[in-house]
Amino acid sequence: MNTAMELTLTILIVDDDEIKVGKIKDLINRATLNRTVVAADQISAQNYLLQEKFDLLILDMLLPLRTGEGDPDPGGGQNVLEELEIDDAYKQPDAIIALTEYDDLQLNVRESFADIAAIKYDGSSALWETHLKRVIQRLKKSKAGHKKIVYCEGSNAFHYNLMALPNIEFRGLADSRAVYLSAKNEQDKYAIRDRDFLTQKEISGLQTKYPNYFVLNYYCFENYLYHPDNIAEVLAGFDKEKYIAELLSQKKAKLMTIVQDYKISRSAYFDLNDDNKAVMDKKPETEIIKALESDDLEVFYRYFDMAGKKDSENKKSFDKTFLATFNLDKMALTQSAWFKGKMLDILNNLR
Questions:
Q1: pLDDT value of residue 3
Q2: What's this model's pTM, rounded to 2 decimal places?
Q3: Residue 171: exposed, middle, or buried by beta-carbon count in 10 A (0-12, 13-18, 19+)?
Q4: Which one-letter DSSP state was computed for residue 302?
């Protein structure tokens, strides 16, 4: 888990010279936290640029069309740049550097692409490293100063913001429908919703369609607050085993009511019913009922409602009478290392 994820740069190196790539990666590793991908030809580079938005593209100008097929093309790098310029299907990197050892190719970049940095590569000199470090530092400052907006459900925004994640602002919306629509229609922003009764297949389908859409691993936000491990971190001497036994006992007592009603709840999920139910799991009971029947906390807890909202006297959700004597502080529960770590695990693709 990367707790400094906002200052991690995603970088695509496009170069077929392994020695040169090694030197570039060494410099990057010294300069910043990073996730770096390497492509050795034009086709691979274009495929990566179709799939993902990178913070930085470092591009050699002498590239083969495909690895192992013919000699490198002096116009290979230019082909990649031209495709980026004319085809909106590509995800434009925040910064591009043409890093070439050939004077004529460097000059050509400067003449044809005035907004792209063209740096002369010389393996025996450190000058190119100085130029590349400056670009990386500028990107880090820019990324650090750019706030990511994450929409969430209702008043959860207040508690999410208590985590004080760097450069992230959570904003509450009315319900899960509004959260989903924000992810669908504002793809420069992010959204996170409660899991409710979504299956893993449905979550994977939604996140494939909308990479900016995140789903909690447990039923709802309160499942994290009142998880035994979270309470134990905040409350010294807390009897976890006794609490887990209470959770299991209540789950067993309410199992039939939950199973009878979960399909009604799912029928109201707008993200499942959108787009002709394209992501809807046709057999959700295979996962949901099996999980609820389990006595393993980490299995049944995914679908056991800990919110305790007015649910006809808690017939389907957890009755918090057991916890009442501990006077738990929701703010403290939200600011624990355990809670923050779990949220970062979910948001680890946020860029």
A1: 37
A2: 0.63
A3: middle
A4: G
